[in-house]
Amino acid sequence: MRSSLGTFKDVRLDRRGGVILESMVARKTVCLRQLGGDRAGELDAGRFFRNPKVTTAAILASWSQLTGAACAGRHVLAIQDTTDVKFPTTAQRRRGLGQVKKGRSYGVVVHAMLAADATSGACLGLVGGDVWNREAPIATPSHERPLEERESMRWLDTAARAKEVLRDAAMVTVIDDREGDIYAKWARLPGENFHLLTRASSDRSLAGGGRLFDAAAGWAVAGRRAVELPARQPDRARRTAKVEIRFGEVVIRRPKNEADRTLPEMVTLRLVEAREVDPPDGVEPLHWRLLTTHAIADVAMAWRVVDWYRWRWIIEQLFRLMKTQGLRLEDSQMTTAEGLLKLAAAATKAACVDLQLVQERDGKHESPASTVFTAPEIETLRALSAVLEGATQRQRNPHPAESLAAACWVIARLGGWTCYYKPPGPITMRLGMERFNAHHRGSRLQMLLNRDVRLP
């Protein structure tokens, strides 16, 4: 993997950050004791996160280190969302944490944007975001503050960041859920080959009269088809919905309470309404009102918009890998809010790497190994592949050299996978990553010693 959680002038900090990131991915934990491996390693990991030179900003800056190159020439879905990370506290031990979960718990807030291929859904890396602690409640209601002073500004700032990180992409579509339905975003951000796609939250006023949520009622049904809905924890099982679709153009008006009067009075968008018909008993029917800046000339394009929005579930996977189904970030006993902010930023990056590895076990996305691993690490993977291959066809690495799938095959073999049974699971991949990291560090050390180079 790319070897740092940020770029630090101190080479030792940079190297230590890389080892910690590797340990998070390999061991599926943020527990300092497990990351360190022993008491000395635990203390070392703790010192890293307490070091004032290791900042949350530096870790956040490292999120997009590889993403731009991986996205070059593609249509990229830049998917963003926010999650609350709650930590165990008592009245006597708040750890300096602010309120989350609508004031019911204490923790930090993570807002992240990841890049995914618009055709395959392959995760291409993190784009940007933020991690923060609500140190004290703000007395002034949100609607009475300028947008720049609200937390909701994160939706605009992160989308603006995508313009820089993804500048070499053929096209970018920023996707977010209802909380990202902000008029200033529609007015400020769209550009050539830079589009927005959001599930509508506000029943906006339309130019010429009427309301947004009533607009589709007069449109003819353009088509029907089955839509696969992924499982969503804790209350929704995976299922197939029968959906009918309508689409058309709408012109939304600037809200009356919008303080920024420099924004245009009207913005032209397209609305795609996807509504489930004959839903099963006891199931909330699917009903999406999707606003987008993409032109929609026919029903095929309207379904394409629905399919792009369906990829939003990838960022929910990312957050689950950070928490209950992976690193178990919320179990951390780190004692300070500052340390937990750094840990949350590092865990987000580690979870993204884990997501990329899990997605590419069978090679369906044809991602290059360079989306996750450095050039020296790819050399080590290539050498290990030759050693791990057996005599039979089934025991040979079937994936193209320097592909991420080929790298995953090596990791799985190191973890004990025999090539004859079901695909490797998380435990096998975790063991394989631990052993790979040890092999790689050992090989680099031997190379340096052979060259008579003094280590820093």
CATH architecture of the largest domain: Alpha-Beta Complex
Structural class from helices and strands? alpha+beta
Number of strands: 10
The unreliable regions are none
Question: How would you explain this protein's 3D organization?
Answer:
- By secondary structure, the protein is α+β, with helices and mostly antiparallel strands.
- The protein has two domains: 265 residues, Transposase Inhibitor Protein From Tn5, Chain A, domain 1, CATH 3.90.350; 89 residues, Transferase Inhibitor Protein From Tn5, Chain A, domain2 (Orthogonal Bundle).
- 36% of the residues lie in helices and 20% in strands.
- It is built from 14 helices and ten strands.
- Helix 12 packs across helix 13.
- The chain is globular and about 75 Å long.
- The two termini are 20 Å apart.
- The relative contact order is 0.13.
Secondary structure: elements and pairs:
Blueprint: H1 11-27, H2 32-36, H3 39-50, H4 56-62, H5 67-71, E1 75-86, E2 98-100, E3 105-117, E4 123-132, H6 153-165, E5 171-176, H7 183-188, E6 194-199, H8 212-215, E7 223-229, E8 239-253, E9 266-276, E10 287-292, H9 299-310, H10 313-322, H11 337-359, H12 375-388, H13 404-414, H14 426-450
Parallel strand pairs: 1-5, 5-6
Antiparallel strand pairs: 1-3, 2-3, 3-4, 6-10, 7-8, 8-9, 9-10
Helix pairs in contact: 1-11, 1-14, 4-11, 10-11, 12-13, 12-14, 13-14
Question: TL;DR of this structure?
Answer:
This protein is an alpha+beta fold and 456 residues long. 36% of the residues lie in helices and 20% in strands.
